[in-house]
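INFO  loader      accepted 1 record
INFO  loader      residues=188
INFO  predictor   begin
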Amino acid sequence: SLKLSFGAGDLLLSPGAIQLVEGTATYNYEELKPEVITDGGSVEVKMGNVGVNVIPSLDGLKNDWDFKLGNQPMNLTIESGAYDGTFEFGGLSLTNLTVKDGAANVDLVFSEPNQTEMSVFSYSTGASDIKMRGLANANFSIFDFSAGAGDYTLDFSGDLQRDASIKIESGFSNVMIIVPEGVNAEVT
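INFO  predictor   done
INFO  writer      dumping tokens
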């Protein structure tokens, strides 16, 4: 299991690590230095403990994580606040994927099929702009998307390998759902 607890800044995730996770974190406040907590087969990388009076404002804040993920089967959890995220999950082996964020701007792509069956893909967000592409490549059996106000694009292109159940809930927002021609979909 890998959990990434990230606050504000830029989070870039892509395949290519030999280990579970590898990469760099660039920050301009020592308090933002990530901590790595390992407990058996579980790893958590979390933003340092930032107090209320540590950073006077977000102006000038630099907190960038550029991480590569390994190809071994994993449960991946991402918890974040207000941030920009670019996630390329194509070719990984995600058994479960959970994303919880606040006011986010995220581009999430499965450019290639997930190498293992994913039980649940859960994404919950606040007021955000989220674009997801290649969702059929995620190879999930359940996709649960919950969102507040914002703009959301859910593109189910890719190589659909099995039946799946999808639940989408959203507040006052613009939701675009793209189902490729020829896909047997039942929409309620």
